[in-house]
Amino acid sequence: MKKNCVIGQSGGPTAVINASLAGVAAAALASPHIGKVYGMVNGVQGLLEEQFVDMGEVLAGEEQVELLKQTPAAYLGSCRFRLPDMETDTKPYEVIFALFEKHEIGYLFYIGGNDSMDTVHKLDAYAKKYGKDVQIIGVPKTIDNDLPETDHTPGYGSAAKYIAASVREIGMDSMVYCHPSVTIVEIMGRNAGWLTAAAALARGEGYPAPHLIYLPEVLFSDKQFLTDIEALLGQGVVNVIVAVSEGVRYEDGTYVCEGTQDCATDVFGHKNLSGTAKILEQKVKAAFGIKARGVELNVLQRCGGHFASLTDIEEAFRVGKESVRAAEQGESGVMMVYVRESDAPYQISYAARHIGGIANMEKVVPRHWINAAGNDVTPELLRYMQPLILGEPEVRIQNGLPVYLSRQA
Amino acid sequence: MKKNCVIGQSGGPTAVINASLAGVAAAALASPHIGKVYGMVNGVQGLLEEQFVDMGEVLAGEEQVELLKQTPAAYLGSCRFRLPDMETDTKPYEVIFALFEKHEIGYLFYIGGNDSMDTVHKLDAYAKKYGKDVQIIGVPKTIDNDLPETDHTPGYGSAAKYIAASVREIGMDSMVYCHPSVTIVEIMGRNAGWLTAAAALARGEGYPAPHLIYLPEVLFSDKQFLTDIEALLGQGVVNVIVAVSEGVRYEDGTYVCEGTQDCATDVFGHKNLSGTAKILEQKVKAAFGIKARGVELNVLQRCGGHFASLTDIEEAFRVGKESVRAAEQGESGVMMVYVRESDAPYQISYAARHIGGIANMEKVVPRHWINAAGNDVTPELLRYMQPLILGEPEVRIQNGLPVYLSRQA
C-alpha cells in the first residue's frame, strides 16, 4: 500500500540543501511505494502548524528540478526548533503523529545538520516506542562539515569553493599596494575549522594567500599570532593574508570575539560569533602600526549560489535520492552518509548510518591535519578537500543575474 | 619615428582594470607609432623608482591576453600617490620626465579614478608648460562610477553585478526563517550612491530584496530609517533587507559610521568608512528587539573576478584600445569616456575629453533618480544600470578555482 511522505529543511542555509530537496522529491515522486510528496514549510515548526506544499506541483517539469538544484538557502524555509524530551513533554509528538495519520504519511525526510538530526533521533525514538508506522530518515546538510560518520557533508564543498575563490581574490586585492598590510579574513565555523581550512585551497603559483590559518581546534594566542605576522613581515612578505575561524578561543575558553556587542545566544544555547577579524585587525594596528583590514565573509559563504561546486550539487541531489531508496528498504532512525571509496580517482558511495551516533555530535578537524605550529593545515587535509570543490554548474542567468526558484514567486 | 610608451594603474582594485591594461597594451604593441610597451610597477610611485615590466613579454600569447582580461585587482600594482603642485615642487616632475627621455617614452597611459586623473592633469600641464613631447592619456577606472563626462566607468558594471547577485542571495538566505529580522547590507561608495543603487537590480518576481535603499546623496535620519522599517514590519514583511551606502551622513555632516574605531584618514584626506551596517544593526535591535544582522560586502565587491560583467570587461578592454587610437591622433591631457548612444538596444561610443573637467571631480546620483522618500531608486536609474551587468565571461578554471595572471607567478 502506498503511503505519502513529507520532506523538511532545517538549520542554516547552504548552497545545496535544495539540491537534496530536489533529489528526495524526484525519487519519492517516482517511487512505487510513495503517493503524495509534501514539503513542510519552515521545518518541524511548519509541520506542527500543518503548513504543507505539494512537491509534485512545485517540480512539475524538469526545468523546475534544475532550477531548484541551483537555488541556494532553503526553498521550503527553515527553523531552529528543538523538540522537548518525550519523557517530559509528549504534546508536540502527539500533534505531529496525529498529522502523519491524518495525511497518511509513512515517511519523513529531514534535511539538516547536527541540531536537525536531534529531531530525527527523537521522532524515530517516539515512533518506535509507540509503534507508529512512520520511517524517519535524516539527510545531511551543513556547510560546517562537522557531522560524524560521513566523509563530508553536502554544502561543505560549495562553501569551501566560495571561500577559496574569495580568499584568492582578496589576496590579489591586498597585493596591489606596496605598503605593508595585514588582511584578516573571518570564516564561519564555531568549533570545527573545516571551512577556514578551505582557505588553503586558494594557494597556488602566484597566489601566496593565505599565509596563516587559525582553526578553532587549536587554542589561540595573541602573542603567537603577532609573532607569526612579525616573522612574515621580517621575511619580506609585504601583504600578509590571514584566514581565521570565527570560533577561535583563548586558553581560558573565551572566544576571541567575546566582548563585542554581537555575542547574543540562540535557542540552542550557541553564542552568535562575529567580530573576530575586526578585533584582530585592531591588535595588528596596535602592535605594528601598519594597515590592517578585517574582512568577514559572512552569510555569502553559505548562500553563494552563483559559484557553487558541481560535485557538491550532484552529490547532494544523489544523497536525496538515496535516502528514498533507504526508506524503501525499511530503514528508519538513520542518516545518509558519504563513504569515500578513493581519493584518486575521487569516488564516494552512499550508506545509511544509525542516527544515535550522529545527533548532537560534532566532528572537528583532526589535530594531525593541522601543522605543528597550529597556524596552517597539512597536505593530507588539502588532498581531502580538493576534490570537493571541483566543477561548476551551468548557472541559469536572466538579466545578468542567477535565476532561483522562490516560494514567493 | 617610433616612441615607446608606459602604462600605469592607480587607485583601488576593480574586476576590469586589467582588461583596460590588456587593451592599451595590445593596441600599443600593434601600433606603428609605438615601439616598446612598458608597464610601471605600482603606478607613479614605481615610475619614480624606474620599476618597469615589458608588456610585450607579459602578453607573449593570446592566452595571456585572455587571462589578464579576467584577472581582478591590478596586475601592475597600484599606488595612492599625489604629485605636488608643480608651482611649489618640480622635483618629481623632473625625475619623471628625465626617465621619459632616458627610455624614449612619448606616451603615458594612466588607468585610474578621480585621484589618478589629477596625476594625468598635472603631468600633462607640466609637459605643455616645459615643451616636453610626451602625450598623457587617462583611462577611466573606478567601481564607484563617479567620474564626470563618461556615461559610466569601467569596473562599475562588474561591481554592480556582484552586489546585485549578492543582495539577491542574502535576501534568500534571510527569508528562510519565519521570525522577523532585519538584514542591513553595507555597500561601498563614499559620496556617490551608484554601487548601493545597484542592489535594486537584485529585485524580481520572487526576490523582494532589497526593501529599502539609502544612498549618500540623501541625508540620513535614524528616525526615518526606523520608521521605514516599522512600516514594512507592519505591512507583514517578515524579513526586511536594507541596502545602505558606507557613506551615508546625518544632517550635521557626520558619517553614520563615525565613532567606530575604523575612521582613519588616508593620504588623500579620505576617512576610512566602515561599520555603518553594524551600527544600524544595533539601532534596529534596540528599537524593535528583533534579530538584526549587518553584512559588509567589503573588498569582494571590487575584486570578485569569478562573477564579473562581460559587458564591463569588453568595454574596459575596448576603451584601453581607444586610448591608444587617441594618442595616435595626437591627443594629450584627456581622459577617454563612454558616450551612451542608446538604451535599447544598448550602445555606447568612445571619445576623449579634456581632463580639466574631470580630475578631482565627482559625479553623484542625480536627486531625480532617487525616490521622493529618499529610500529607493527610480525606474530611470534601473534602466540606466541594467545593461551594464549583462553577460558572463567564460572564466578559466583550474582545480575548481578561477585562474588569474599574477606578477608573483
**Most extensive interface, residues per chain?**
A-B, 67 and 67 residues
Q: What does the largest sheet of chain A look like?
A: 7 strands, mixed
Query: Spans of chain A of 5+ residues with little confidence (pLDDT < 50)?
Result: none
Instruction: Give the overall average pLDDT of chain A.
Output: 94
- How does the overall form of chain A come out from the CA principal axes? elongated
Write down how many β-strands of chain A occur, each being a DSSP E stretch of 2 or more residues: 13
Terminal Cα separation of chain A, in Å? Answer: 35 Å
Query: What is the beta-strand fraction of chain A?
Result: 15-25%
Radius of gyration of chain A: 22 Å
Oligomer: homodimer
What is the count of helical runs of chain A? 13
Write the layout of secondary structure elements.
The structure is a homodimer of 409-residue chains.
Chain A: E1 3-9, H1 17-30, E2 34-40, H2 43-48, E3 52-54, H3 55-58, H4 62-69, H5 91-102, E4 105-112, H6 114-129, E5 135-140, H7 156-174, E6 181-187, H8 194-197, E7 212-214, H9 222-234, E8 239-245, H10 276-288, E9 291-296, H11 300-303, H12 310-328, E10 334-343, E11 346-354, H13 379-385, E12 397-398, E13 401-402
